[in-house]
Amino acid sequence: NNTTWGAQNLFSTQYFWSDGTYSDCLQIRTTATDGFQVQFVDASGTGGSQTYETFLRSGTAGDFIFQHWHHVIIQRNSSNIWSGYMDGKALTAHSTAGTAARIINAAGRSIIVGGSGQGGSGNASWNGFMDEYILWTGINFNANTVIERYQAGRAGNHYTANSSCVLHIKADSTYGDTTFTDSSPSAQTITSVNGAQHHIDDN
Fold first, then answer.
1. How does pLDDT run across 158-167, given as a tens digit for each residue?
2. What is the Cα Rg of the chain in Å?
């Protein structure tokens, strides 16, 4: 749920684009006209250079509604093919360029949820709400599983983390609380930035 479908980040590795050190930088963000953008950048040189990009979008006009809750899954399989679903419907990849076989965050840096890692500053932050933010590793959902998870989300059910889940953030604390807990087995440390807080009632 956000205020616009402009360029706002859902995920970014730390020091995305212009750090001058890392070659495995990744960001996933919304765009104004092309749905979701998946972009890898080699930032080991001056200024950084794009190494892979694809856009995942719906073929149906009106599917992307701002200020409205959506269930989104973006994933990559073992063949390095990116795919996505929104509200149980498959998204279509287009304008793909570069080599998809990129290692995600091999250096083990921090990741930024709902913000851009350009210089680690959190630019292009998500301007809206998120709930049930989950990262998995080693699995890829089929269409049936996606629909099951979408329906569970609509029913207001929290997901249960399994061994493949490496991050699970629930928005289930009191209003205004700035403490976020990772409910996955990894129990990652989460630091709130840019005023992120729990907001139970979004009316």
1. 888 888 999 9
2. 16
How many Å apart are CA 25 and CA 104, to the nearest integer? 7
**Percentage with pLDDT > 70 across the chain:** 82
DSSP, residue by residue, 51-99? EEEEEEE-SSTT---TTS---EEEEE-TT--EEEEETTEEPEEEEEEE-
**Residue 18 DSSP symbol:** T
**Number of Cα atoms under 13 Å in the Cβ half of residue 184:** 18
Amino acid identity at 35: G
Q: Provide the mean pLDDT of the chain.
A: 81
Please report the beta strands in the chain, taking only residues with DSSP state E, as ranges in sequence order.
8-13, 25-30, 36-42, 49-57, 72-76, 82-86, 89-90, 92-98, 111-113, 133-136, 165-169
